[in-house]
DNA sequence: ACCAGTCAAGGAAGC
DNA sequence: GCTTCCTTGACTGGT
C-alpha cells in the first residue's frame, strides 16, 4: 500500500513551487493578447510544478493526485481559449513531454479528482455538457502524458445529485457517462458521500455499480459520517470487490470542532486495511508533512512483502 | 510586506 | 425565486 499526496506538496511550496490560477473576471478585463500571455505562463508554471511534485512523490514512494485546476479557463466556455491559442503553446507541449518522461522513469501512480461541480447526473443539459467537456479534457491530458486508460490512473468524483430515485439518478448518470470519450470512461470511478441523504457505500454497491460496472472508491471519513448500516470492514470489502485493479481509496480524519466532515491537519489513528491491498490518498491538510508524520508514527504503514514472501 | 476581500463552480437550504 | 452557504487556494487591490 502506498500513501497518496493530494495536489500540493508544502515542502515544494516552501521552495517556491506553487500553483497559479486566473479568474475569468481578470482574464476578460485585460486585452486578449496580454491575457493569453499571462494565462499561458501560469499554465506552464502549473505543469512544471506538477512534474516536480511527481518526482517528489517518487522520492517518497507515494502516489499522486494531480490538481484539478492545472488549466484555468481552458474548459470555460465564455473564455473561449484552447491550449493552441496560448503564445507559449510549444513550451507547454515540451512540459507535457517532460511529465510523460518523469512518469515513465518513476512509474508513479497518477490520479485525478475533478471538482465537486462536475455533475453527470444533473437535470441541467448545460451542466452535463460542461461536465463532459471538463472530464474529457482531463482524460486527454492523461492520454497526453502517457497514463494508462484504465483504473491504474483513476479519475474519481461524486454523483453529486439527489433528484429522483437512486435508480433514476443512476440511469441519468449512465446515459451521460456513455457520451464521454472512450478513454475517459475507462478511468472514471465514483466515491461514497459523507452527507446522510447522499450516496452511501451500500447504495453505490447495491444500486449504482450493478448498472454501470464502475468501481467504487472507499473514503474512510465519508463512511464514518454516513455508514448506512455497514461496518468499515464490510464497506471497504464491498468497494474493493468493484475494482478490477489495485484500488485507490481515500483516508482522512475529522478536524476538532463541530463539523465532523472537515478534514484535520494531521492523521493520528492507524489505518485498518483489513488485509486488502490498495493505495490510499491522504486527504489531510498538512499534505506531505502529514504523510511523513504518519509514516513516523506507523513505520510499517505501506510496507509490502516481497512477492516471494507474500506468496507463502 | 501584508491583509482582507474576491473569485469560481452546482446544489441544498432557508426565506 | 431569490440569497446564502459550502469549499479551496491563489489572486487582487488597498493600506
Question: What can you tell me about this protein's structure?
Answer:
It is globular, with a radius of gyration of 20 Å. Helix 3 packs parallel to helix 4 and helix 6 packs across helix 8. A five-stranded parallel beta sheet has the order 3-2-1-8-7, with helices on one face. The chain has a three-stranded parallel beta sheet with strand order 4-5-6. The longest helix is centred in the first third of the chain and has 29 residues. The chain contains twelve helices and eight strands. The protein binds a DNA duplex (15 and 15 nucleotides) through helix 2.
Q: Which H/E pattern describes the elements? A: EHHHEHEHEHHEHEHHEEHH
Question: What is the quaternary state of this protein?
Answer: single chain
Proportion of residues in β-strands: 5-15%
Radius of gyration: 20 Å
Q: Counting H and I runs of at least 4 residues, what is the number of helices?
A: 12
How many angstroms separate the termini? 19 Å
Fraction in helix: 40-55%
- What summary fits the major beta sheet? 5 strands, parallel
Amino acid at each position: 500500500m502506498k500513501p497518496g499526496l493530494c495536489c500540493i506538496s508544502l515542502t515544494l511550496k516552501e521552495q517556491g513551487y506553487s500553483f497559479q490560477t486566473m479568474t475569468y473576471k481578470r482574464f476578460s478585463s485585460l486585452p486578449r493578447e496580454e491575457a493569453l500571455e499571462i494565462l499561458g505562463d501560469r499554465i506552464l508554471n502549473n505543469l512544471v510544478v506538477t512534474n516536480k511534485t511527481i518526482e517528489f512523490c517518487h522520492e517518497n514512494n507515494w502516489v499522486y493526485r494531480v490538481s484539478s485546476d492545472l488549466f484555468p479557463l481552458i474548459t470555460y466556455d465564455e473564455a473561449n481559449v484552447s491550449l493552441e491559442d496560448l503564445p507559449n503553446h510549444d513550451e507547454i507541449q515540451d512540459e507535457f513531454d517532460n511529465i510523460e518522461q518523469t512518469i515513465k522513469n518513476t512509474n508513479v501512480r497518477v490520479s485525478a479528482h475533478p471538482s465537486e461541480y462536475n455533475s453527470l447526473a444533473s437535470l441541467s443539459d448545460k451542466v452535463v455538457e460542461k461536465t463532459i467537456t471538463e472530464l474529457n479534457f482531463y482524460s486527454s491530458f492523461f492520454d497526453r502524458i502517457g497514463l494508462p486508460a484504465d483504473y491504474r490512473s483513476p479519475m474519481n468524483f461524486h454523483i453529486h445529485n439527489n433528484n429522483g430515485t437512486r435508480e433514476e439518478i443512476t440511469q441519468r448518470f449512465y446515459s451521460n457517462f456513455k457520451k464521454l470519450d472512450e478513454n475517459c470512461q475507462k478511468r472514471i470511478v465514483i466515491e461514497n458521500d459523507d452527507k446522510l441523504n447522499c450516496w452511501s457505500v451500500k447504495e453505490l454497491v447495491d444500486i449504482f455499480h450493478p448498472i454501470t460496472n464502475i468501481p467504487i472508491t472507499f473514503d474512510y471519513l465519508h463512511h464514518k459520517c454516513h455508514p448506512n448500516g455497514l461496518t468499515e470492514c464490510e464497506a471497504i470489502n464491498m468497494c474493493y470487490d468493484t475494482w478490477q485493479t489495485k484500488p485507490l481509496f481515500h483516508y482522512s480524519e475529522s478536524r476538532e470542532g463541530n463539523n465532523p466532515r472537515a478534514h484535520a491537519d494531521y492523521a493520528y489513528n492507524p489505518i485498518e486495511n483489513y488485509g486488502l491491498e490498495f493505495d490510499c490518498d491522504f486527504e489531510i491538510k498538512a499534505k506531505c508533512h502529514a504523510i511523513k508524520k504518519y509514516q513516523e508514527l506507523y513505520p510499517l504503514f505501506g510496507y509490502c512483502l516481497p512477492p516471494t514472501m507474500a506468496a507463502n
